[in-house]
Amino acid sequence: MSSPFLWGTASAAFQVEGALSEDGRAPSVWDVFAARPGAIRDGHSPAAACDHYHRWSEDVDLLDRLGVNAYRFSIAWPRVVPRGSGAVNKAGLDFYDRLVDALVERGITPLPTLFHWDLPQALEDAGGWLARDTSKAFADYTAVVADRLGDRVGRWITLNEPVVHMAYGHAFGIHAPGRTLDVPEVLRVAHHLLLAHGLAAAELRSRGLEALLTNNLSPVRAPEHATDADLAAGAAYDALHNRLFTDPVLTGAHPDLSAFGVPEVPGVREGDLDLISGSVDGIGVNYYNPSLVLAPEEGSGLPFALGEITGVPTTAFGWPVVPEGLTETLVGLTDRYGSALPPLYVTENGCSCRDEVEDGRVTDPERIAYLEGHIAAVDAARERGADVRGYFVWTLTDNFEWAEGYHQRFGLVHVDHATQTRTPKDSFARYRDIIAARTAVP
Ligand code: PNW
């Protein structure tokens, strides 16, 4: 029997858990970054988030009511190995053990992500992703978690969106750890993330487990009447955003990064690319929107500039709504990588809306339209030959949206952050009905 298509929702530890200093958890780079004045919009604090650490059972009940057969969540490295390497914190592992048991009991397949940006601060202090040792520490932490949960969890995501962590966290400084490195050092970070993935995948596979890598992908759009310079900028952006963390794992080579003025990626040692090559049993695709890429202004320091996609609806975040871009992404991967491409999973897709509770109800027609459009886009991609095995809505509950704090509400469930009251939105019922219709036994 082939395994069923996975219908789920996705979340991340730091965005929902709270309880940042409970049961032996140590600070992550996000705890420290969020405390910097000005780092988070309106100074919102991640301390409580959705209090999922205490309310996880209520959240699993919500998943049960939604009727999903899968749930993507992330494991907080600083809960399990508080200093990043060395001593293991049993209480941290126990938390995820209980969560996995509760999911499995309800027939919900757990899909954990091992790194969703919350690096233990102790590792950051020792060099963070600029240090090769961090990759090794990640593999050791992976082994610890896999040994504990591998009897119930068969499929794992190593890293979430390494390109966003690299660019926002290490080049632009708008995400933790808030660094603004120059291009070669940013690419060194990229290599250590890829190496971490490769080493962790080897740990998982040696235990008979599957390793997936989740990337944020955004198809490149050129402006009308594009010049050669615009097209060259588009190719440079595509190499950096879409291929830097995909080509090495599928083809064993880096994309052409010559536009960035770096002859080769720093830190790559003999054997590294062999380890990274072919290290995935699935590719996770997080899709939000396409990117309009233009030639840069003189002296901008980057070989591309980003424009604004007009003529389509936008989300509360200002992101353009373009469902066809998801079809294009999934079919594009299929065409580009051919037989080297493993199964695909849409591991995040969703939108933030201006959601307010009125008389106990949250009406979110924009989210319903967004989800219907993007699920149809997945169908279209499958009809065109893309081997898509699952779809996960970002996200179950409104949560801590990184530098935006609680301002962006991506949830199917509204959260009143003052009281932690959860109220399923209209989109929750719509997604429940879509899943029910599609998983009904004839
Ligand atoms: C993803 N962009 O982040 C993350 O995986 C989630 O943790 C996050 O909550 C979600 O998408 C919504 O933002 C992104 O600017 C951050 O293209 C930035 C971008 C895309 C995704």
TrEMBL record:
Keywords, comma-separated and alphabetical: Carbohydrate metabolism, Cellulose degradation, Glycosidase, Hydrolase, Polysaccharide degradation
Reaction(s) catalysed (UniProt annotation): Hydrolysis of terminal, non-reducing beta-D-glucosyl residues with release of beta-D-glucose
KW Hydrolase (keyword) present: yes
Domain of life: Bacteria
GO molecular function: beta-glucosidase activity
Keyword Transit peptide: no
SUPFAM superfamilies listed in its UniProt record: (Trans)glycosidases (SSF51445)
Cited PROSITE patterns: GLYCOSYL_HYDROL_F1_2 (PS00653)
Pfam family, one: Glyco_hydro_1
Enzyme Commission identifier(s): 3.2.1.21
Family in the record: Belongs to the glycosyl hydrolase 1 family.
NCBIfam families referenced in this protein's UniProt entry, alphabetically: BGL (TIGR03356)
Protein name: Beta-glucosidase
Organism: Nocardiopsis lambiniae
